[in-house]
Specification:
The complex is a heterotrimer of chains A (about 290), B (about 375) and C (about 325). In chain A, about 75% of the residues lie in helices and about 0% in strands. Chain A has 13 helices and no strands. In chain A, helix 3 packs antiparallel against helix 9 (about 210-225) and helix 11 (about 240-250) packs antiparallel against helix 12 (about 255-275). Chain B has two domains: about 5-230, Rossmann fold; about 235-370, OB fold (Dihydrolipoamide Acetyltransferase, E2P) (Beta Barrel). In chain B, the strands form four sheets. Chain B has a six-stranded mixed beta sheet with strand order 6-7-8-3-9-10, sandwiched between helices. In chain B, strands 13-12-11-14-20 form a five-stranded antiparallel beta sheet. A five-stranded antiparallel beta sheet of chain B has the order 15-19-16-17-18, with no helix packed on it. With about 325 residues, chain C is mostly helical. Chain C has a single domain, classed as MetI-like (MetI-like fold, Orthogonal Bundle). In chain C, helix 1 packs across helix 16, helix 4 packs antiparallel against helix 13 (about 230-245) and helix 7 packs across helix 14. Classes of the chains: A mainly alpha (about 290), B alpha+beta (about 375), C mainly alpha (about 325). At the A-B interface, loops of A face loops of B.
Chain lengths: ~290, ~375, ~325
């Protein structure tokens, strides 16, 4: 019986529940909708004043042209900002996935000394106060900074990616371990008996079998890098979408609906992720939360 | 204690029709079995009666009351699941008391009823344990106790014995039947095991592919199957089927199977005169056969060769090849046959049933339908 | 001879594991362990303005710690941070666990399609870029007519002019805002965990309870919730640790002056601001940080013991 619940039952309660849920969700819906709406309007639409909404596409046009100010002719290259955000996001995704799949495999399938302690450590790290951590991370940053100003740009990008990825690594390892645990032992033994080295087994046999896990980590890694604010503002000299929004709120020369457009654009990958990965989310949470 | 009526009930899941316009009449205090293979729709019918499924069309009645739209809790039914569905975090006592607590009876009242039902099922010494501490048989009795404690109008059981080991099944069968008789509660019992249905039920409905093929007492469905499926489903080893053609001559009507030509059994001469068919399927049960070394032409006998012999202790199963057909016969301990031996298979003609080749219905059934009887 | 062979394979085997683990070990060392050690060291120096040449070599003992405790006692700003942290964690934790539980149960009893949409919607706070998320609530709680909440309250006549929740209604104004903002983020975690827990409960139990006459509430209370005890504990302890350390989602709200600085700042944010903004007093920040780490460590250890971490880890099969 694949039934969830009895079919003949009172539906009135359900309607009430649904109403309660919708009520609770209202601030969320209102908040995000108004922001998106504002990006299409001449003035910000944040109260329910119908007068403030005057439809225009000019914000988006300006955004794509890179003219982020109405007066003063200040031209900021939007492309660069988006590119920086993208680099950070992709970098974090890549690093997290690489380390997660490597270490997750070892922890899941190999017995080594301190295995248990390592897992314990990873669990504890996740609960580590990030603001304390960042003080030390910054110290290392300025101590290892290259003296050549040409390289500083690249170094900070590189550093931000690895430092931010490091924050995701403990969770990624736990997640991948969960996925690797689900692969039957016999498949691996068969490959080893056939003569494959561990690395070959990992690359050719195990990785293809944990594709949902890899997809999940890449997605979460990407989103972590894409949405980050603190690390990029602390380490990066360049602007990303996050620091751009931070700097331009009610700054004298910025036009708020423009900022709303930037914010809506910034939100897009998140929305895309939602729409396309419902099932993935389920699989991930099931593997991660195993009793 | 009520009677249950289903009228033209259909249940669809998407495109799949699980139950196809069935009507059933289950009598008050009856032990009624729904018998059929996996996927036949028998459990679906049970859950429709329970209110877990809602019919796509059709109505369901308890006595005169139309209960089709009533949720399960208002139908006052007791349901025992195949895997018992006991609440693992509650003790046995609390599992049984659960329906009563929902009705907000006083704790004294609850205690009385729980102990009474537990005694009846002989699990009163287990009330303080958790389900995972009990054996399968004990867990099942707890499930039955929980169903009965609220004194329901109807008891519904979904293959309750299938999770028990074979020996236990036989003894529990007997007890369940006695319990039902002493309580007098209308019971609907789903099973795929024909022996179980025959042993326990007052009447059996044989179900296949969402349709009711035949409803009758165990003797009726066993001895007078209305179609080939019913004949073949009941009985172990199953009924033998051989195709034959009809030859109508001046001396009488004959059945022709390969080389053999035998007279049509007496009970069918009249029926055959009213039906225009020339091919039938002969059905006879393994226990209704006598195996002779020699065939005398006037008897209802067929020539065959012994293919295999399986000694079962109490009797033998002898498989005999008649032409291309394999026929199984049950023979008593004394008789010995050798593989390859040529023998004569003689079914009791009065127990033989003839089925129409095309519709697979018994000729009696065909006649009834033709004349609208 | 056999012994040598055995040894060799043993070393080889350990080498294999090492290959897979080295990237993780390096990154964990460089970005967790080393920084912690450095932070602890910094807490014993008078480091300011990141002037490492001048200050990093100097050890001033527990000076920074004394200063921190002194400020808690005498500086109302610092004291309110402390108070804010406690209230913030207590209230948000309750909201997160109960809210997640409510959503998981409610979506279980409601039509499937609506449930899927609701669960997706509630993931938005956690998944949205932090800057965008902050911007949304900035406008929602804005202290003038353009504030969404203000305009709602004005139009239904509850107030007659816009109110400054974040700055003027002390302390519950800023407290409510930061609890609300973080509450929405945390609810999604519980919701996911509890939904998966409910999915693991055999549905026959729910149906059996329905047949016995239970309502949604009775099924939740007597069947579903008791079978989710471990998950509830897991979410509670995990969220507790998360709330202790989170600061990104309220950083901008404080910076943009939506909320009162002292009552909108938690301990974690205080540390970041002390080190990277304002006074740039890294020594003090580090000291405050080390104390937080100790508290977090103790809570984390208790958590693991309660959750039975030992039982969660199973040995890999086979000896290869």
């Amino acid at each position: 019986m694949s039934l969830k619940d009895v079919e003949v039952r009172g539906r009135k309660i359900e309607a009430v529940l649904l109403l309660a849920i919708i009520l609770a969700s209202t601030p969320l819906i209102i908040g995000f909708s108004l922001l998106t709406l504002s990006s299409f309007s001449k003035h910000m639409v944040t109260n329910f004043d119908p007068n403030s909404f005057k439809f225009t596409l000019i914000n988006w046009v300006r955004f794509l042209e890179g003219r982020m100010a109405i007066t003063g002719g200040v031209r900021i290259s939007v492309i660069n900002i988006i590119l920086n955000t993208l680099i950070v996001a992709l970098g974090v995704a890549f690093v997290t996935t690489l380390i997660g799949t490597l270490a997750g495999y070892a922890i899941s399938r190999m017995n080594f000394r301190y295995r248990k302690q390592l897992l314990l450590l990873l669990l504890l790290l996740h609960a580590f106060p990030g603001s304390v951590l960042i003080v030390g991370v910054y110290l290392i940053y300025i101590v290892t900074m290259p003296s050549n100003p040409e390289f500083i740009r690249y170094y900070s990008l590189f550093y931000v990616v690895i430092a931010r990825a490091a924050l995701e690594v403990p969770m990624a390892i736990w997640l991948m371990k969960g996925f690797f645990d689900l692969v039957p032992w016999e498949i691996e033994w068969a490959a080893i008996v056939d003569g494959a080295s561990r690395i070959k087994v990992w690359w050719k046999v195990m990785l293809p079998l944990v594709k949902p896990g890899i997809a999940a980590i890449m997605l979460f890694g990407f989103l972590a890098g894409w949405q980050d604010l603190i690390y990029v503002r602390t380490f990066l000299q360049e602007r990303t979408l996050a620091t751009f929004i931070e700097a331009n709120l009610e700054a004298e020369y910025s036009h708020m609906p423009l900022l709303a457009a930037v914010a809506t654009f910034y939100l897009l990958p998140t929305i895309v992720f939602f729409v396309t990965s419902q099932k993935l989310l389920l699989k991930v949470t099931l593997a991660g939360v195993k009793r | 204690m009520v009677s249950i009526k289903l009228r033209n009930v259909t249940k669809r899941f998407g495109r799949v029709v699980a139950v196809d316009k069935i009507s059933l009449d289950i009598l008050d205090s009856e032990f009624f079995a729904l018998l059929g293979p996996s996927g036949s729709g028998k459990s679906t019918i049970l859950y429709l009666i329970a209110g877990i499924y809602k019919p796509t069309s059709g109505r369901i009645y308890f006595d005169q009351q139309d209960i089709t739209d009533l949720p399960p809790k208002e139908r006052n039914i007791g349901l025992v699941f195949q895997n018992w569905a006991l609440y693992p975090h509650m003790k046995v006592y609390d599992n049984i008391a659960f329906p009563l607590r929902l009705k907000r009876l006083s704790e004294d009242n609850i205690y009385r009823k729980v102990v009474e039902v537990a005694k009846m099922l002989r699990i009163n010494h287990l009330l303080d344990r958790y389900p995972w501490q009990l054996s399968g048989g004990q867990q099942q009795r707890v499930a039955i106790a929980r169903a009965l404690v609220k004194e329901p109008l109807v008891l519904l059981l979904d293959e309750p014995l299938s999770n028990l080991d074979a020996l236990l099944r036989v003894s529990v069968r007997t007890e369940l039947k006695r319990l039902q008789k002493s309580l007098g509660i209308t019971t609907v019992y789903v099973t795929h095991d024909q022996a179980e249905a025959l042993a326990m039920a007052d009447r059996i409905a044989v179900i296949n592919e969402g349709r009711v093929l035949q409803v009758g007492s165990p003797e009726e469905v066993y001895g007078k199957p209305s179609c080939r499926f019913v004949g073949g489903f009941l009985g172990n080893p199953p009924m033998n089927f051989i195709e034959a053609s009809i030859e109508r001559g001046r001396e009488g009507v004959y059945l022709v199977i390969n080389m053999d030509k035998v007279s049509v059994p007496k009970q069918y001469t009249n029926i055959l005169s009213k039906l225009e068919i020339d091919r039938v399927v002969i059905g006879f049960r393994p226990e209704d056969i006598v195996i002779e070394k020699q065939c005398s032409p006037r008897d209802f006998c067929l020539h065959g060769e012994v293919y295999a012999v399986e000694p079962l202790g109490r009797e033998y199963i002898v498989t005999i090849a008649i032409g291309e057909h394999m026929v199984k016969a049950l023979t008593p301990r004394g008789q010995v046959f050798n593989v390859g031996e040529k023998v004569c298979v003689c079914p009791y003609s009065e127990k033989t049933i003839l089925f129409d080749t095309k519709t697979e219905k018994s000729l009696e059934q065909l006649l009834v339908e033709k004349h609208g009887l | 001879m056999l012994y040598k062979l055995n040894n060799f394979f043993h070393k080889l085997y350990r080498f294999e594991a090492l290959f897979f683990l080295i990237p993780a070990l390096i990154i964990v060392f460089l970005f967790f362990i080393l920084p912690v050690i450095l932070s602890v060291y910094i807490s014993f120096t008078p480091l300011k303005n990141w002037n490492i040449g001048k200050y990093l070599g100097e050890i001033v003992g527990f000076n920074n710690y004394y200063r921190f405790f002194y400020m808690i006692q005498h500086d109302p700003g610092t004291r309110s941070v402390f108070l804010t942290t406690i209230v913030f964690i207590a209230v948000t934790l309750t909201i997160n666990v109960l809210g997640g539980l409510f959503l998981a149960l409610a979506t279980f009893f409601v039509y499937e399609k609506a449930s899927a949409f609701i669960r997706t919607l509630w993931l938005l706070p956690r998944m949205a870029p932090i800057a965008v998320y902050s911007l949304v609530w900035y406008y929602f709680f804005h202290a003038s007519r353009i504030g969404t909440l203000n305009s709602i309250l004005l139009s239904i006549g509850l107030i007659d002019k816009p109110i400054d929740i974040g700055q003027k209604i002390i302390p519950w104004g800023p407290w409510s805002i930061i609890i609300f903002v973080n509450g929405l983020v945390g609810v999604s975690f519980g919701m996911i965990v509890f939904t998966s827990a409910i999915n693991n409960i055999p549905k026959e139990l729910v149906i059996a309870a329905r047949v016995d006459g239970a309502t949604n509430w009775q099924i939740s209370r007597r069947i579903l919730i008791p079978l989710m005890k471990w998950h509830i504990l897991y979410v509670t302890t995990w969220q507790l640790l998360s709330l202790l350390t989170t600061y990104a989602h309220i950083f901008l709200l404080v910076k943009w002056n939506l909320v009162h600085r002292d009552y909108g700042t938690t301990w974690s944010l205080y540390i970041y601001n002390a080190a990277f903004t304002g006074t740039f007093d890294q020594g003090l920040a580090a000291a405050a940080g080390v104390i937080l780490v100790v508290i977090g460590g103790v809570l984390g250890w208790i958590t693991l013991k309660i959750l039975g971490f030992d039982r969660m880890i199973t040995r890999p099969r086979g000896d290869i």
